[in-house]
Each structure stands twice: as structure tokens, then as C-alpha cells.
Amino acid sequence: MSQDQGRYDFYIGLALAITSSLFIGGSFILKKKGLLRLAKKGSTRAGQGGHAYLKEWLWWAGLLSMGTGEVANFAAYAFAPATLVTPLGALSVLVSAILSSYFLNEKLNLHGKIGCLLCILGSTVMVIHSPKEEEIETLNEMAHKLVNPGFMVFATAVVIMSLMLIFVVGPRHGQTNILVYILICSVIGALSVSCVKGLGIAIKELFAGKPILNHPLAWFLLLSLIMCISTQINYLNRALDIFNTSLVTPIYYVFFTTSVLTCSAILFKEWQHMSAADIIGSFSGFLTIIVGIFLLHAFKDVSFAISNLPLSLRKNDHSVNGSLTNIYESYNHDEENHLGDSEPHSENISSR
């Protein structure tokens, strides 16, 4: 029964994670459309600290879509390990890239399509080899995990890094460096996922009839989650307003996934009981995703499609044949010059 229940929870978490990626991928497009409309009206942009997007219905539609995706994601964490749910966020990269090519005129070339495919393949490999986290069924067990020295050091480092990025690095380089605002969202996202996991356990206990509302950890996790999500929304809006959507989405995915995997490994000890094959498979899947993200990002401005491939090959063949012809003609020319120079010499020899 426990194995059947575990398999049932696995498929529920998988379906919820895929649904979450669809809604979150679409939310980026709606938010970007709303921010572009505000820019045309001359309102103070979000990248400059403005909050005029709160009056734009398209932005609210994007926020609603993201909220729906996050709720599905929230539920997925309650049924499945974080290292299963988080890598499936690569599907949101695919959805965002496809929709942005149709609705935002952000062209997706052949390299980008291959990158999206690699993201899907890498996510599939990570799901197959996903580590199994330690079973945590009560908030008391979660509280014991949170006060672990390793996680306390990690959480302290995340808070210090976030404050440095927000108050020191952000005002100086946030407008020009795409990584600043994305790093803020990503490192805080690691803590928000931990809060989501804890609240998911609390909701399960609440439905089981336990007095969870009297547990101080439940309220602490709820307040921490609200603070983390508010900060993420603020700085993600700034990144979307300043930089291209097809760049923000994949880069955010890479850093966010790395942060969550690191946090889950420290908090839930997911890697202790994994076989060598699963460890190699997990790292290989994640590296495949990173390669896909690199193709999607590095060659974004290169105009190259499948229809250009035969023409490119013909050009390469022509250049190779042309170079061989030039070498042959140069060789013949050198031979003729050599023969022309040797004729007078032979005549001198015969006269002698």
C-alpha cells in the first residue's frame, strides 16, 4: 500500500508540476505585454522603480497566471520531492520562448529550438534519476531540520548575499547587468521553496485534524513565504522590464534550480542514499539543461533557421572547391614560371 501510495503521489506531483510550468511560462508573456504598454504610455518603468504596472490589467492577468502556477507548484512540492518538481520548471522556459516568438516578436532561431529541446531532455533525465528526500511528515520534524547547523549557515549566507545584492550591487549595476536582479530572485527562491515544503506538510496535518494553527512554525513559514515571494515579484518585474524575456526566463531557471537543488540537498539530505548512477544521471541532466540554456541565450541574435542549412552547406562546398581551384591554379602558374625561367638556362647549356 505504501508503494502504491508513493507512486500515486509521484504522478500527482508530476502532473501538478507540468501544469505549473504552463501557467508560469504564460505569465511572463502577459507581464511583459503589460509592461510594454506602460512604456508606450510614458509611465515610470518598473526597471526605474516605478509601480504603474499595478494599474495595468494585462500585468494583473500575468500575476494571476503566475499565482495559479505557483499554487500548482505549491501542491506539487507537497506530493513530490523538490528535486523532482524544480527541474520541470524547464518547461516554463519552453512555453515562454514559444509564446514570446508569437506574441512579442522575439524570434526563436534554430539554436533556440535546439536549446529548448535539450532543456526538456535534461529535465526528463533529472526526473528519472531524481534523489529521494528523507520522509518528513510533521512540522516538528521540519523544525528539527530547520535548526540543523548546515542549513542555518546556508540560510544566513543567502540572507547576507540578498541584502548585498539589493542595497549595494543593485543600485549600481542592476540596470546594465542581467544577473543582478535574477540572482536576487534565485537565492531568495531557495528559501521560498523550503517554506512551501513546510506549509505543504502543515496543510496535510491540518486536514488530518491536528491543531496546526497553534504551531508557531506554521505562521513563521507563512510570513517568510510572503516576504520571499514579494521580493521575488518586485525584482523579477525589474528584470523583465529592462531585459529581453527570452533571456530572463532561461537564466532565471538555471540559477533558481541551482539554488533549490543546493538548499534541498542541505535541508532534506537527498543525496546521501543515492547510487553513483543516479548521481551521475542527475548531474548529466542538469548539465544538459545548462547547455540548452546556453544555446538559447548565446546565439539569440544569430539569424539561422533550418531553411538556411542547405544554402549554408552549398556555400561551404563552394568555398572549399574554390579554395582547391585556387590552389591548383596557383600551382600551375608556379610551374609555368619555373619552366619559363629554366628555358634560357637550357639554351645556354646547349650552346656551350
Automatic annotation (TrEMBL):
Keywords: Membrane, Transmembrane, Transmembrane helix. One of its GO terms (molecular function) is magnesium ion transmembrane transporter activity. It is a multi-pass membrane protein. It is found in: Membrane. GO terms for cellular component: membrane. Its main location: membrane. It comes from the Eukaryota. Gene3D superfamilies: 1.10.3730.20. It holds the Pfam family Mg_trans_NIPA. The chain crosses the membrane at residues 12-30, 57-79, 85-104, 111-130, 150-171, 178-203, 215-235, 247-267, 279-299. Belongs to the NIPA family. This is Magnesium transporter NIPA2. The gene is NIPA2.
